[in-house]
Amino acid sequence: MTGIIRVLGLHADCIIGVYPHERERSQPLEIDIEFAADVTEAAATDSMAAAVDYDALSQRAVAAVAGAQPELLERAAELVLAVVRETPGTANPVVRIRKLCALPNARAVEIEVR
């Protein structure tokens, strides 16, 4: 049985941006991670050992973006996508990242990568 797992609204504070004022302090990002996984064994056994550890995956995703201090949202999304792809048991990942303070007249700027 295939399941679609979504981590929605993961919060990350990191240095991101190309302008000098963006490089001076952390900015909030909101990350959505989606992937397919075979959930048959996890559902049958109720065992974490048979499931994708989305908590650990989320921690690695935030650490990847925060550690890289990317200039572009595109790079941040690629970093998170790589973390998901490197996680055993995941398939067909989709990553959305919102930069919440990118534009003064918008709630956010978002990128989606697959």
Structure description:
The protein has 114 residues and is of the alpha+beta class. 31% of the residues lie in helices and 34% in strands. The chain has a single domain (2-113), classed as GTP Cyclohydrolase I, domain 2 (2-Layer Sandwich), CATH 3.30.1130. It is built from three helices and four strands. A four-stranded antiparallel β-sheet has the order 1-2-3-4. Helix 2 runs antiparallel to helix 3 (73-86). The longest helix is centred in the middle third of the chain and has 15 residues, at 54-68. The radius of gyration is 15 Å and the shape is elongated. The relative contact order is 0.22.
State the gist of this model.
Helix content is 31%, strand content 34%.
Poorly predicted parts:
none
Strand proportion: 25-35%
DSSP strand tally? 4
CATH architectural name? 2-Layer Sandwich
Q: What is the number of domains?
A: 1
CATH superfamily, by name, is: GTP cyclohydrolase I, C-terminal domain/NADPH-dependent 7-cyano-7-deazaguanine reductase, N-terminal domain
Query: Which value, in Å, is the CA radius of gyration?
Result: 15 Å
Level-1 CATH class name = Alpha Beta
Which class best fits the helix and strand makeup?
alpha+beta
Strand order of the largest sheet: 1-2-3-4
The first-to-last residue Cα distance is 22 Å
Looking at the structure, what is the overall shape? elongated
CATH fold-level name: GTP Cyclohydrolase I, domain 2
Contiguous helical run count: 3
